[in-house]
Amino acid sequence: MRIDPSELGAERIYRLMTGIVVPRPIAWVTSLSRGGVLNLAPFSAFTFVSQKPPMLAISVGRKGADYKDTAHNILDTEEYVIHIADTPLMQAVHDSSIEHPPEISEVAELGLETLDCERIKVPRLSVAPVAMECRFRQCLEFGDARSRLIVGEVVMFHIRDGLVNNGKVETDALDPIARIGGPRYARLGEIVTLGAVFQTPKSTD
């Protein structure tokens, strides 16, 4: 089968790519508007781009002709929190993708409790097993749709007790959820461990 992307609109290409690039981790992001409204939204175009300092990237698209509230909030306040959700939070993650007017808080709509962060003003979700306090560092725009790739530095990690062993996260205990095509999500399933291979150390520390 051959598919020429130049013959397709953005929506059809999006459906193809989100079915091919799978599974995708989900960044569950809280951000504050200038008026103090706490926004919550999931983003599955998400990865890390640096380990020292730790930096994460999310791609934020538009809703209609305007950018999503998360992009506005981050560029306005330069602070936000990226959470990793586990399986019990799957429905809440999905429901937080419902589009609301900017004056409506998804956190309040879903009845989620929050905690104060240590380094930034944006609250974090108390139910999430991982929360990463972030400060905005860079924004790049891509494509005809001008999707915004937002890069932020993690200034504090909050990780549920018992998830870190010998400096590494116990992924099976974390039980993160992933996004696949459409309104569908996935869990990790079987974890396969292969033999270690030599790699040059990333640093001397």
How would you briefly describe this protein structure?
This protein has 205 residues and is α+β, with helices and mostly antiparallel strands. It has a single domain (5-186), classed as Roll (Pnp Oxidase, Chain A).
Description:
The chain has 5 helices and 16 strands. It is of the alpha+beta class and 205 residues long. It has one domain (5-186): Pnp Oxidase, Chain A (Roll). The protein is globular, with a radius of gyration of 18 Å. The N and C termini lie far apart (49 Å).
Strand neighbour order, sheet with most strands: 3-2-8-11-12-5-4
In terms of quaternary structure, what is this? single chain
Number of helical segments with 4 or more residues: 5
What is the CATH top level name? Mainly Beta
Our measurement of the CA-to-CA distance between the termini, rounded to an integer number of angstroms, reads: 49 Å
Which fold name is given in CATH as the topology?
Pnp Oxidase, Chain A
Task: Write down the overall mean pLDDT.
Answer: 94
Q: Strand portion, in percent?
A: 35-45%
How does the helix and strand content classify structurally? Answer: alpha+beta
- In total, the number of domains comes to 1
Element-level helix/strand string: HEEEEEEEHEHHEEEEEEHEE
List low-confidence stretches. none
Tell me the name of the CATH homologous superfamily. Answer: Electron Transport, Fmn-binding Protein, Chain A
Shape: globular
Q: Largest sheet, if any?
A: 7 strands, antiparallel
